[in-house]
Amino acid sequence: MTGVLYVVATPIGNLDDWSPRAVATLKAVKVIAAEDTRHSGRLMQHFDIGTPLFALHDHNEGARAEGLVARLAAGEDVALISDAGTPLISDPGYRLVAAVQAAGLQVVPVPGACAAIAALSAAGLPSDRFIFEGFLPAKANARRERLAALAQEPRTLIFYEAPHRIAECLADMADELGPERRVTLAREITKTFETIRQLPLGEMRDWVAADANQQRGESVLVLEGAPERAGAADWTEADRVLGILMAELAPRQAAALAAQITGLKKNALYERALAAKG
Ligand code: SAM
């Protein structure tokens, strides 16, 4: 019998969010690999979990993975946790999980809190398709370059940001993506000073800059995607609708109604209507 690697999410603030299954799993395994044993030790004490912890972080993960795979192969169950939330999500663990998968051993997730998903669920922005960008680069030039590269991304974007960079990050977003794009700041999720607020980027930049409290604690930014560019098929349909409307209406009225019907921009439709009229 080989062992199982359990990837166990921990709370991101409110300890009541932790599931009985997560606690039972950590009590049952032979050993827990934790990002920071002192930090996780306090959580273990609170939940009366006596399983030994050992450190697995970015700097030793590669070296430790081999030993852990050997323990699993020898039949020991192992759990992986990070400081908060779901391991591997902007946290260590990928190399270990990859090594365990490569060895043909079993990996079982024990799901729970994840700040990105909690923020998205309360952000009020489209959630049918989204991308997780993790942390933007710390250096201003690299951050702006990354934002410029993402400017046309139509899906909702989720970013993690450190408290001391949240104000400059919002300023760069407003500069690179325009002040009108909507963004939701989800700060201190599940904690006492939880704040979830949606504003256009320019207003969010000014609000956070003016209120030092909004620069404290942990934050997720959920950003509206770029407007979808109309494809050829959309314009073919728009021309058909415009043609019908222009038989009865002036170009300006026809364009306004066509914009409502197709969701395309009124000005662009008006130009098309004028061109069609010759
Ligand atoms: N693995 C974690 C997860 O599942 O969310 C994320 C770890 S990452 C090192 C830490 C970042 O997550 C913070 O800088 C912040 O952006 C976000 N975060 C974690 N807890 C949060 C909370 N309670 N409220 C808002 N953001 C949080």
Keywords:
five-stranded mixed β-sheet, Cobalt-precorrin-4 Transmethylase, domain 1, Methyltransferase, Cobalt-precorrin-4 Transmethylase, Domain 2, 3 domains, binds S-adenosylmethionine, alpha/beta, five-stranded parallel β-sheet, elongated, 18% strand, 11 helices, 278 residues
Secondary structure blueprint with pairings:
Blueprint lengths: L3 E5 L11 H9 L2 E4 L2 H10 L6 E3 L5 H13 L4 E4 L12 H9 L3 E5 L4 H9 L6 E6 L4 H11 L5 E6 L4 H12 L4 E6 L7 E6 H10 L8 E5 L8 H15 L4 H12 L3 H12 L1
Parallel strand pairs: 1-4, 1-5, 2-3, 2-4, 6-7
Antiparallel strand pairs: 7-10, 8-9, 8-10
Helix pairs in contact: 3-4, 6-7, 7-8, 9-10, 9-11, 10-11
The structure holds S-adenosylmethionine.
The site of S-adenosylmethionine has 24 residues, from helix 5, strand 7, strand 8 and strand 10.
The largest sheet has its strands arranged as 3-2-4-1-5
The level-1 CATH class of the largest domain: Alpha Beta
Q: State the secondary-structure class.
A: alpha/beta
- Main beta-sheet strand count, sense and barrel state: 5 strands, parallel
- How many domains in all? 3
Order of helices and strands: EHEHEHEHEHEHEHEEHEHHH
Shape: elongated
C-alpha end-to-end distance = 79 Å
**Approximately how much beta-strand content do the residues carry?**
15-25%
CATH architecture of the largest domain: 3-Layer(aba) Sandwich
Q: Could you please say which CATH topology of the largest domain applies here? A: Cobalt-precorrin-4 Transmethylase, domain 1
Mean pLDDT level: 95
Q: Number of DSSP helices? A: 11
Q: Would you identify the regions where 5 or more consecutive residues have pLDDT less than 50?
A: none
CATH superfamily of the largest domain: Tetrapyrrole methylase, N-terminal domain
Beta-strand segment tally: 10
The hetero compounds bound to this protein are: S-adenosylmethionine
Fraction in helix: 40-55%
C-alpha Rg (nearest Å): 25 Å
